[in-house]
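Re: that chain you flagged

S.,

Sorry for the slow reply, it's been a week of failed gels. I finally had a moment to sit down with the sequence you sent. For the record, here it is as I used it:
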Amino acid sequence: MLMLGAKDLASRLAAAVARPPLSIDDRPGPAAVPSAAPLTPAAVLVPVVAHPAPSVLLTLRGRQLKAHAGQVAFPGGRIEPSDASPAAAAVREAEEEIGLAPGAVQVIGTLGEHVTGTGYRVTPIVALVRPPLALRPDPAEVDEVFELPLAEVLDAGAFSWREEVLLGRTRRFWVVRHERHLIWGATAAMLVALREALGAPPMR
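Prediction finished late last night. Pasting the structure tokens below so you have them in one place:
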């Protein structure tokens, strides 16, 4: 298994996101067939916490939300007209959702865009966050903030495929091992993209 410590984390992340990113289209049907509905631009922050044993910061969305309630996600949301860039949107959303101070965030670069089955074109923004963390989750949006060890992300054994019928179609998606939460869908796919960008062997 590929191991990665805090000492060389920033340089490895920078080298990883400098490679040409691979985009993912998660809409039902062949990716080559464009959907008639316009896509909503969005951005998420993929915060890698520089502990001696690094981790990835994730949120459990509020169960009262209308969309994706109770799901594990990266902090993020729609790109607003006032946002200077996808990175600016991701940093703003992380501050609003979990109280992550912009000054604590070192933006490294982007992974490939992810088009979701719900009509969003999401840009994942990889960032390095230095501990200790002083977070203030917004209870209207977030039930919990937790960390997934980067060693788990780099371990192919932590990932598996699952098939389910969603919205009347059979969908196949990644699931990431976790003792308390189900990490799946776009979030799991972005974790796959992160591990492969960091040099872990591709999974099929």
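What I noticed first: The CA atoms of residues 196 and 202 lie 6 Å apart.

Talk soon,
D.
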